[in-house]
Amino acid sequence: MSKSAQKPGAMTVDESDDGDSRREFLYLAAGAATAVGTLATAWPFIHSMNPAGDVLALASIEVDLSAVAVGQAITVTWRGKPVFIRHRTEDEIAEANAVSLRSLPDPEADEDRVQQPEWLVMIGICTHLGCVPKGQAPGDPKGDYGGWFCVCHGSHYDTAGRIRKGPAPANLPVPPYQFVEDTLIRIG
């Protein structure tokens, strides 16, 4: 059909493609606007799931060890958990190193649990049922191996915090920590 023979107002093939392109553009624009609107509406709810500022502040703590004498232990709280820090004596270090790894239920060398041999840092929660073992205070029972003793179910830990006897399946865990200075550590 020639252009002169077409009816006025009738579309040609080229004009029909142009209409489809506009329609596709409108669909894409409407979809993008909907996605942006949904994200803008949902963002406050997603952001509310982030940890609060006070929780983030406890994500890491610094502990000054300068006042802890040899043979003394302190307990600090990190992320709501007790962390045992012991300034070990030469005898405690020697005892920990003398243990045969084959005799341990959860074999782990002492040097793998400490960054400096005289400082032992570990989470003070029994790996059996989550009790807090005794052994931090001078008068506390220290169990059969001179470390810590969980009086609830009878787990005995040695001077490296390794399980030696009782129902606990694993050693007392070591948290992530680093020495910032000789007597200052950052836990977390």
Descriptive labels:
single chain, 188 residues, alpha+beta, Rieske Iron-sulfur Protein, 3-stranded antiparallel sheet, 4 helices, 9 strands, 28% helix
* Uncertain segments: none
Distance between the termini: 80 Å
Helix-strand category: alpha+beta
**Shape call:** elongated
What does it look like?
The protein has 188 residues and is of the alpha+beta class. The protein has 2 domains: 13-47; 55-187, 3-layer Sandwich (Rieske Iron-sulfur Protein), CATH 2.102.10.10. The protein has helices at 13-47, 53-57, 90-98, 110-113; strands at 61-64, 73-78, 81-87, 119-123, 146-150, 155-158, 163-165, 177-181, 184-187. The N and C termini lie far apart (80 Å).
What is the topological layout?
Blueprint: H1 13-47, H2 53-57, E1 61-64, E2 73-78, E3 81-87, H3 90-98, H4 110-113, E4 119-123, E5 146-150, E6 155-158, E7 163-165, E8 177-181, E9 184-187
Antiparallel strand pairs: 1-9, 2-3, 3-4, 5-6, 6-7, 8-9
Compose a concise summary of this entry.
This protein is of the alpha+beta class and 188 residues long.
